[in-house]
Amino acid sequence: MLTSSPFWSPVVAGLVPYVPGEQPKLANLTKLNTNENPYPPSPKVVAAIQAAAQQGLQLYPDPESVALRTAIAQQYGLQMDQVFVGNSSDEVLAHAFFALFQQGAAAPLVMPDVTYSFYQVYCGLYGIPMHVVPLADGLRVDVETLFGPSGSRIAGVVIANPNAPTGIGLSLAQIERLLQMHPQHAVLVDEAYVDFGGASAVGLIDRYPNLLVTQTLSKSRSLAGLRVGLACGQRPLIEALERVKNSFNSYPLGRLAQAGALAAFEDQAYFAQTCTAVVHSREGLALQLEDMGFEVLPSQANFVFARHPQHDA
């Protein structure tokens, strides 16, 4: 792999890119390394994608994704202009970091030291300084510690809830406490795994103008292959994301992605059924691991974090 080139911009040589989970080349493997859903998407999603593939592919998709954003807004009790969609939650997060957290060299972004590793990649890409806060006992996030160094100015706060890779979630009371601690700063709550038992902060949006919530359709809605993510927040935050999007790619979601994602939100029964099945499997796995002597953290995600006191991984 190249480490430099005279044609690169200076910043590129210093980037530390995210490494996606390995895609196995062998058949008959149970793939666990990227926390994908073991169940296929709703049959209604497949039908919607097939129907969309039969018409209009010569035309650009709706750049505003109005039908999809309307469905998401209705699901969460929001207005359409409080919803943003993009090509995966990773893209949505990237836009949010660019739009909200570039506040100068003296204003670091605060985050736990053990969390989704892409956050540090975005900071490196955009030149955002970081202040990482150690997890508390039990590998938990303590919101009371999420401040800048010595109370200095910060760019904002980002957390995953439930956290990855621990699977431990924060309560809504803890999220509210964090928002109240930082009324002048954006607080981004990444809810990639929230549908497996976590407490969503979407219901807090109307009370907290500094709250941005991101979610993905990759995990709980079985659409990792479609690449659809979303953000919810008050209009000024969503407008910031829209400005970045339209300075980068005005058509982030193709016709097939919009059709499939819309059908996924319309089939809430299938969504609930598969989430329940995943949670049941998670709890069963945790019990079996504990019976084998493993220490297992309480998970509200679709994975478990476990260690054996006598054996290394």
Provide a short characterization of the protein structure.
With 313 residues, the protein is an alpha/beta fold. The chain has helices spanning 10-13, 43-53, 66-76, 89-100, 118-126, 172-181, 235-245, 255-266, 268-291; strands at 83-86, 109-112, 130-133, 156-160, 186-190, 211-216, 229-233, 295-296, 306-307.
List the helices and strands and how they pair.
Elements: H1 10-13, H2 43-53, H3 66-76, E1 83-86, H4 89-100, E2 109-112, H5 118-126, E3 130-133, E4 156-160, H6 172-181, E5 186-190, E6 211-216, E7 229-233, H7 235-245, H8 255-266, H9 268-291, E8 295-296, E9 306-307
Parallel strand pairs: 2-3, 2-4, 4-5, 5-6
Antiparallel strand pairs: 1-7, 6-7, 8-9
Helix pairs in contact: 2-8, 3-8, 4-5, 4-7
What does this structure look like?
The chain is of the alpha/beta class and 313 residues long. The chain has a single domain (44-266), classed as Type I PLP-dependent aspartate aminotransferase-like (Major domain) (Aspartate Aminotransferase, domain 2, 3-Layer(aba) Sandwich). Helix content is 33%, strand content 12%. It contains nine helices and nine strands. The chain has a seven-stranded mixed β-sheet, with helices on both faces. A two-stranded antiparallel ribbon has the order 8-9. Helix 2 (43-53) runs antiparallel to helix 8 (255-266) and helix 3 (66-76) runs parallel beside helix 8. The protein is globular. The mean pLDDT is 95.
Q: Write the CATH homologous superfamily.
A: Type I PLP-dependent aspartate aminotransferase-like (Major domain)
Secondary structure category: alpha/beta
Largest β sheet strand count, sense and barrel closure: 7 strands, mixed
CATH hierarchy, class:
Alpha Beta
